[in-house]
Prior knowledge:
Layout: H1 8-38, H2 43-71, H3 77-110, H4 116-123, H5 125-143, H6 146-149, H7 161-167, H8 176-215, H9 222-257, H10 264-292, H11 294-318
Helix pairs in contact: 1-2, 1-10, 1-11, 2-3, 2-5, 2-7, 2-10, 3-5, 3-8, 7-10, 8-9, 9-10
Amino acid sequence: MIFNSPDVASIIIYFSALFGTIGNLIILFAFISNAIRYKILQPLDRIIVNMALVNLLLCCFKEISGLLLVFQTRVYGTAGCRILLYTYHTLRLVSICSVENLSFIHLIKIRRPSCQWLQYIHSHQGQYTNWTTAGCWIFSIIFHIPYLLCDSMLNDHNKTITYFISTNCLTTSKNFYIMFTTYASVSLDLIVIIIVIILNVFIIDLICKHRRQIRGMLTTLNGHNKHTLQATKILLSLLSLYVVCWISSDVVWVAIVGGFIHNERESKPFNDIYGIFSSIYYSVSSYIIIFGYRNIRDHLSESCWCSKSKKTTVVQIMK
């Protein structure tokens, strides 16, 4: 192990991932503790828990790479690099699909659907959530198998830990399966991004219409009006974060695999952009959910109150 001073991008990636780890742990603690207390986990909460768990694993992925970067510990090798690449993009696709699923469930909860198929989903949200979440995991696990099968994915330019942390072992490849998987995955990302944008536009439109309807009512509804305005801001923040981070990382991903970046000096800024944007997405999105969803704050306050009441009871019994 040789200590090496990391660059600015690696430091940003590491600390943003550490920041995101704390946020995702808070989300998991809030929902899981509430589920244990009431012995039920609502369909919408299941999606958020699944998304927070995946984002937590991705943040840990960035942190481990960041620690190895400091000491230049070469533990990956060809096989390790394939596993890291496969794991990262499998989790990434699950995270993106979770956002789309969350937006869809939000929409049908706000506006009762008229279509018979959507009405069935609305009345069976629990089954729909379980099947779609399981299907997303199975599809993502199978879809990225070509990354595990390719042996010639490393070259002389990606044998440093810096390259691992920023692009996750992804380099220029002439392998058909790698190229096909990459372009298919990016195309799938863009399709999901468009779906998420459309769903959130509908949600924001419904919230704005509801706000206009209650604007002329009594002042007692001002608090509710503030909640609708806050919900709109949260959705716009999440939507902007999703679009910017996803599209930026996809463009860099295609540029690296497609061979559009020819030397290490050209690839360095793109590698840094890829790593920073992906880390920011997995970190900031957790805090937008924490401060945006009132349920999380309610769950945390209930958990803290229960723990305090238990301590008080124990003290009284001991007395």
